[in-house]
Write a structure and sequence with these properties.
Blueprint lengths: L4 H4 L7 H6 L27 H14 L3 H15 L12 H16 L4 H14 L7 H18 L6 H25 L7 E12 L2 E8 L10 E5 L7 E5 L10 E6 L5 H8 L6 E4 L16 E6 L3 H14 L6 E7 L8 H9 L4 E7 L22 E2 L2 H7 L7 E5 L2 H13 L7 E2 L10
Helix pairs in contact: 3-5, 3-8, 4-5, 4-7, 6-8, 7-8, 12-13
Length: 436
């Protein structure tokens, strides 16, 4: 399949990445603005409560046929605007899911302007790495309206169309403004050379990369990453360390079944290969001014951002706070980062590390086994959420959760039931974080 494999690792002027991402502005006729024409009268105004009601009603009709609707949307987009096709991956299955999830998110957040703006600003900044240009938004909007007209059935009329045009206009303007603002201070993507690659387990790799220029981020955040073997396919990975003086970035990657990117990173990547990184994102960061005690829960490779958070606390100084880290895996062999955490705990009495395994039987479940600066001895038995509750109560703590989405949701629900306020539970449940 790869007749010139070494060439795939090269990135620079004129390479296949640069050519693909220099598609430029649409070459066809300029699409009509979403607010133009009879159908768009009033579309420049902010959406109303009635607009939001109509949009949610329409989505309820479209959701059962979302696969057909999104396939129709992309067919229209690529037929009428073929210059846009080069911005997308060859396989569109994951991309189709993303479209409808984004629509649902926007519809559900439409009556929460602050939350919607935060979400759209993040999307606008992130879309720069795809090569998205201002002119593309009009093309996408017209194809979206045409698709909704086809699949909303009796829920589609002039009033519904106006509602969608208003909401999409708001979405497009917010994303465009965010992209233009980000362009003033940062590139759309960073190139990063792999400088270290080791296996923590047979299916988990610890990769360290050197970006081609300064890369700003906070411990607890994540980025999107693209490999030369799967162009235009981006996946989310969390930073495994706090920012370092040498600028190197480390990731923990688990090869998942049918995961194109994760399998390439675990089983194919090697020092010298060049990857691409999108901008950092995510709000799972520590407020060092609050001084609140922390509860950190990491399952599998979800220990990566947890380790970064603990490193950052150590660098800033604990300031009298205590930190409990619960690290879960299926077996002892899966606790590949435990020794590093134990080493950190050994020199910091404010840190307690509690290993938990769900399948091994040689364990201890003594809730008193993890003293300050310790690791709780042998691993506890059972599921991670239950182990966390056994060590509680955790009232007054700020909780940080990372790992498989099901584990994060169960742990968050358990903490809420135990009395931890929702505002004190932090996680970044991005749909693609666990994807390949």
């Amino acid at each position: 399949m790869f007749t010139r494999a070494p060439g795939l690792n090269w990135a620079g002027p004129g390479d296949h990445w640069s050519r693909a991402w220099a598609a430029g502005a649409p070459t066809g006729p300029t699409p009509p603005a979403l607010g133009s024409g009879a159908a768009g009268q009033g579309a420049q105004h902010p959406p109303t409560a009635r607009d939001i009601e109509l949009i949610r009603a329409g989505l309820a009709v479209v959701e059962p046929v979302a696969d057909r609707a999104t396939a129709h949307f992309y067919a229209l987009l690529f037929l009428h605007h073929p210059e846009i096709r080069s911005l997308f991956p060859a396989a569109m299955d994951v991309q189709r899911d993303r479209l409808f999830r984004s629509l649902l998110m926007a519809a559900r957040s439409a009556d929460n302007p602050a939350g919607l703006t935060e979400y759209l600003v993040r999307l606008g900044r992130g879309h720069r790495k795809f090569g998205t240009l201002t002119g593309h938004y009009g093309s996408v909007g017209e194809c979206l309206v045409a698709t909704l007209e086809r699949y909303c059935g009796s829920r589609w009329d002039a009033e519904a169309e106006l509602a969608w045009r208003r909401v999409y206009g708001l979405v497009a303007r917010t994303m465009i403004d965010a992209a233009e603002e980000a362009a003033k201070s940062s590139p759309p993507w960073w190139q990063a050379e792999v400088v270290s690659h080791r296996l923590g387990t047979p299916d988990i790799a610890v990769l360290t990369v050197r970006p081609d220029q300064a890369y700003p981020y906070r411990a607890g955040q994540y980025t999107t990453l693209e490999t030369p073997w799967w162009p235009r396919v981006w996946r989310h990975f969390s930073f495994a360390t706090a920012p370092r003086p040498d600028g190197l970035l480390t990731f923990h990657v688990k090869a998942v079944q049918a995961g194109w990117v994760s399998n390439a990173l675990v089983h194919r990547a090697a020092p010298g290969d060049v990857l691409r990184l999108g901008p950092a994102a995510g709000g799972m960061v520590v407020d060092h001014g609050s001084g609140a005690d922390l509860l950190c829960v990491g399952g599998g490779t979800g220990i990566a951002p947890i380790s970064a958070l603990v490193e950052e606390v150590a660098a800033y100084g604990a300031g009298g706070r205590s930190v409990d880290v619960f690290y879960g895996a299926r077996s002892h062999a899966g606790l590949y980062a435990l020794e590093a955490l134990r080493s950190l705990a050994g020199g910091n009495p404010w840190l307690c590390v509690h290993p938990v395994v769900s399948t091994d039987t040689v364990v201890s479940t003594d809730p008193g086994g993890g003293g300050p600066g310790g690791t709780g001895g042998r691993a506890e038995a059972g599921e991670l959420p239950a182990a966390v509750l056994r060590r509680g109560p955790w009232s007054g703590r700020r909780a940080y959760l990372s790992g498989p989405p099901a584990m994060v949701r169960r742990t968050a629900a358990a903490l809420l039931r135990s009395g931890v306020p929702q505002a004190a539970v932090h996680h970044d449940l991005v749909g693609d974080l666990a994807a390949g």
